[in-house]
Write a structure and sequence with these properties.
This protein is α/β, with parallel strands linked by helices. The protein is 40% helix and 17% strand. The chain contains 7 helices and 6 strands, in the order βααβαβαααβαββ. The chain has helices spanning 12-16, 29-45, 58-71, 94-100, 102-108, 123-140, 152-164, and strands at 2-7, 51-54, 75-77, 145-150, 180-186, 189-197. A 6-stranded mixed beta sheet has the order 3-2-4-1-5-6, with helices on both faces. Belongs to the phosphoglycerate mutase family. BPG-dependent PGAM subfamily. Its EC number is 5.4.2.11. It is an enzyme of class 5 (isomerase). Keywords: Gluconeogenesis, Glycolysis, Hydrolase, Isomerase.
């Protein structure tokens, strides 16, 4: 099964450095330009996509709608594709967390995939639910090409697990808004992975 993994376009909270998690904020004007650039790039690549699955959070759903229209295929909301839940840190900036919760901030920002924010989930837990979704899709449609629209943090964990078999190095798989990765899944293995494709965004600089 081929998977096109897309990160949503820039939002107002992305721009302001606010942690979103399961909260949301509108796509910016730049985000709209990023979406257009991504659609053009994927049209040129001519991926024969059978279905788009998107996180139901507004910023990802907005991108999912654009992609489904581009690919002329169905769009399905999938809660397993949501961002990592950051609990009571959502809606706060990094600086606010470091000021208000200094000991917790050290764990949150130490690249610790096992750290679970209060009332949230760890990156390991969030990434595994996406992996479980991919495996379930592979079981029912092994020869399809699907597009999934998710979020920055959880996508890093997913890519690390698929590429390396462990999540420790997830920060190496960071990617900008409206970038995409291409995965070829065979059984329990990811046989090909191209991640963080963002050349289509260079013209926006």
């Amino acid at each position: 099964m081929k998977v096109i993994l897309v990160r949503h376009a820039q939002t107002e909270w992305n721009q302001r450095g606010i942690i979103q998690g399961h909260m949301d904020s509108p796509v910016t004007k730049r985000g709209a330009l990023e979406t257009s650039a991504l659609l053009e790039a994927l049209t040129d690549a001519a991926y024969p996509t059978d279905c788009v699955y998107a996180s139901p959070l507004g910023r990802a759903w907005h991108m999912g709608q654009a992609l489904a229209d581009c690919f002329l295929c169905p769009l399905v909301a999938e809660s397993a594709l949501k961002e990592q839940a950051f609990g009571h840190y959502e809606g706060m900036t990094r600086e606010q967390i470091q000021s208000n919760y200094p000991s917790e901030a050290e764990s949150l920002f130490a690249r610790d995939a096992q750290f679970c924010p209060p009332d949230g989930e760890s990156l390991t837990q969030a990434s595994q639910r996406v992996i479980n979704f991919l495996h379930s899709q592979q079981a029912v449609a092994p020869h399809q090409t699907i597009c999934i629209v998710s979020h920055g943090q959880v996508s890093q964990g997913v890519l690390a697990l698929l590429k390396e078999g462990r999540i420790d190095n997830f920060s190496s798989y960071a990617q900008p808004n409206a970038s995409y990765s291409v995965l070829d899944l065979a059984g329990d293995k990811c046989v090909t992975l191209r991640w963080g494709i963002a050349t289509h965004l260079l013209k926006l600089l």
